[in-house]
């Protein structure tokens, strides 16, 4: 009888442990879900935390849909190169020139683009993006097989200013959309100083051959 009662106690203890385990697991899963929610709120959107001096992209469109890219993009500030380029930093003879990319994806009335002679560079003003997996895409023409167009992303972190390559655009004999380039600033885990958004700049550098660029777009929150 004593042995049977002891076995019964063991069985009841085992059942109790089995009943407690799912409850403990549920609490663990709930805590994990709460943590994920916080990370999403902090790192995924965070648009309101951008510095007042940083421009956030505006309304989204689908400019690359004719090239079978359904993603929504927004223009980088000054990225149409219409009017003054005071918001961009131009070096090495980079300048506005007549002649828009021929597809007129922004407006049919656009009439200018940016010329980058060999060795020239153009750096965009700072703009905000969420800490997702944003991409950049634009129109370009120029270069040679040995002289691609280099695109870098520049952003501030607690460790200082970081410059990382985004893409090298191969030679384009005529105006064409570039392939999407990943802005690596947001896959390194290095957030901006406010911890909520990244404020980035883009730098376009021509090598040993001239380029033209126009209509620079970014997909900051992967809306598709």
Report on this model:
The chain has two domains: 2-45; 48-219, Sandwich (Jelly Rolls), CATH 2.60.120.260. Mean pLDDT is 76; it is low at 5-53 and 189-196. It has 224 residues and is an alpha+beta fold. The radius of gyration is 26 Å and the shape is globular. 20% of the residues lie in helices and 33% in strands. A hairpin with a 2-residue loop joins strand 8 (149-157) and strand 9 (160-169). Strands 1, 3, 4, 7, 10, 11 and 13 form a seven-stranded antiparallel β-sheet that branches. The longest helix is centred in the first third of the chain and has 44 residues, at 2-45. It has one helix spanning 2-45, and strands at 74-75, 89-91, 95-98, 112-116, 121-123, 127-129, 135-142, 149-157, 160-169, 172-177, 181-182, 198-206, 211-219. The chain starts with a helix and ends in a 5-residue tail after the last strand.
CATH class of the largest domain: Mainly Beta
- CATH fold-type name of the largest domain: Jelly Rolls
Strand content: 25-35%
Low-pLDDT runs: 5-53, 189-196
Spatial gap, N to C terminus: 69 Å
Comma- or semicolon-separated keywords:
single chain; 2 domains; Jelly Rolls; six-stranded antiparallel sheet; seven-stranded antiparallel sheet; about 220 residues; alpha+beta; 13 strands; about 20% helix
